[in-house]
């Protein structure tokens, strides 16, 4: 195996970044569990074992690395992205396996926020005389853990906001035409993104305008639940979402203003309907679907990663409520123009550039002529939304 060389930033940084790269191989396979990677390094600096959490219910990363190292694990340093678990779940506690293997030192990226762990695994290791080092490449380890942490600590999924727009910031023309703004390469990336999501959400406006299937083609490691925010249960029985609801779980969130006969028809077509009321709006006193209530319900269904694909009103409500965690924007080199042509995000918006949320070190990729810009969102401490 390869040898880990000390980096200027810290002696275990290279091994931790390798563990993070290994962990990402589990995307779409391990949820609702967290992504975890592990590397075992001998006293001479040789990597003697590697592993990652490969599938939900399967062996954890530490166990995989220990098995591959065998007797060479004794006296080695375990570099792992997340604190080893210390409770019985679908698998035995990793902390006990680490102790039994004779590991001398454990280096972790970040603590496990799950209440049954949350420092307990590290305490067990220290009690057994194992040296523990915390916070190695912590920012990158926390980014890896962000979807799991969001579901555990905030009781909602990690929200990925995805849209395609022109260079002048339009997601459709003034007449509503939007297919296709992005090119085929961008659409392939979108399908790959869908294939690792637990659920995909759209508003009823997008569902009516585009009649989408919201499936990954080709299929990915996960089959996402399709979710429609539909206050009055207007989703047509002839829509692709309803016609395929018997094969792919489809949820419609509506309010108590939805006519009962529409709700009954959707249920008879294998669509699950959920009544979720929000606050009445000052302008028209109608009750909107509470998006936060939707997110809480999805988290109860073990949804960790949620892809939101529109429309502008849904994005605006999420942005105003500070509920967008990551952005995936596909930018085409075209100029639609039009004062009435919509942009990707409506809502009240920020009061000014100084207090708007920004992407943290976004990645930028070229997909033929399109640009794919994506990254996590950081929110300002001050209130960034204008009053209604």
What layout of secondary structure does this protein have?
Layout: H1 13-23, E1 37-41, E2 47-52, H2 61-69, E3 77-82, H3 94-101, E4 105-110, H4 120-127, E5 131-133, H5 138-154, E6 158-166, H6 184-194, E7 199-203, H7 204-210, E8 225-229, H8 240-243, E9 250-254, H9 260-268, E10 272-275, H10 291-300, E11 305-308, H11 312-320, E12 326-332, E13 358-359, E14 363-367, E15 370-378
Parallel strand pairs: 3-4, 4-5, 6-11, 6-12, 7-8, 7-11, 8-9, 9-10
Antiparallel strand pairs: 1-2, 1-3, 12-15, 13-15, 14-15
Helix pairs in contact: 3-4
Supply database-style keywords.
15 strands; 388 residues; 5-stranded mixed beta sheet; alpha/beta; 11 helices; single chain; 10-stranded mixed beta sheet; elongated
């Amino acid at each position: 195996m390869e040898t880990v060389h000390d980096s200027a930033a810290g002696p275990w940084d290279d091994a931790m970044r390798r563990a993070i790269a290994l962990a990402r191989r589990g995307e779409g396979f391990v949820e609702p569990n967290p992504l975890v990677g592990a590397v075992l390094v001998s006293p001479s600096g040789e990597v003697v074992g590697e592993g990652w959490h490969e599938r939900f219910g399967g062996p954890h990363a530490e166990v995989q690395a220990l098995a591959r190292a065998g007797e060479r694990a004794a006296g080695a340093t375990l570099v792992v992205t997340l604190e080893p678990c210390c409770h019985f779940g679908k698998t035995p506690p990793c902390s006990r396996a680490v102790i039994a293997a004779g590991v001398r030192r454990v280096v972790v990226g970040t603590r496990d926020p799950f209440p049954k762990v949350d420092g307990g695994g590290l305490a067990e290791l220290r009690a057994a005389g194992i040296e523990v080092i915390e916070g190695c490449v912590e920012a990158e380890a926390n980014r890896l853990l962000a979807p799991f942490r969001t579901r555990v600590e905030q009781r909602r999924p990690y929200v990925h906001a995805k849209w395609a727009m022109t260079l002048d910031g339009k997601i459709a023309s003034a007449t509503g035409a939007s297919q296709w703004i992005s090119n085929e390469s961008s659409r392939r990336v979108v399908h790959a993104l869908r294939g690792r999501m637990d659920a995909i959400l759209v508003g009823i406006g997008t569902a009516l305008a585009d009649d989408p299937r919201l499936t990954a083609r080709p299929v990915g490691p996960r089959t996402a639940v399709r979710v429609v925010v539909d206050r009055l249960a207007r989703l047509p029985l002839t829509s692709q979402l309803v016609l395929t609801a018997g094969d792919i779980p489809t949820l419609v969130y509506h309010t108590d203003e939805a006519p009962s006969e529409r709700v009954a028809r959707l249920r008879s077509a294998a669509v699950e309907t959920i009544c979720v009321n929000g606050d009445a709006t000052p302008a028209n006193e109608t009750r909107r679907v509470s998006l936060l209530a939707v997110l809480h319900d999805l988290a109860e269904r073990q949804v960790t990663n949620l892809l939101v694909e529109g429309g502008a009103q849904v994005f605006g409500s999420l942005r105003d409520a500070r509920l967008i965690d990551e952005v995936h924007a596909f930018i085409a080199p075209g100029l639609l123009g039009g004062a009435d042509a919509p942009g990707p995000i409506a809502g009240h918006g920020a009061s000014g550039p100084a207090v708007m949320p920004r992407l943290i070190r976004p990645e930028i990729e070229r997909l033929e002529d399109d640009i794919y810009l994506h990254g996590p969102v950081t929110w300002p401490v001050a209130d960034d939304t204008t009053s209604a």
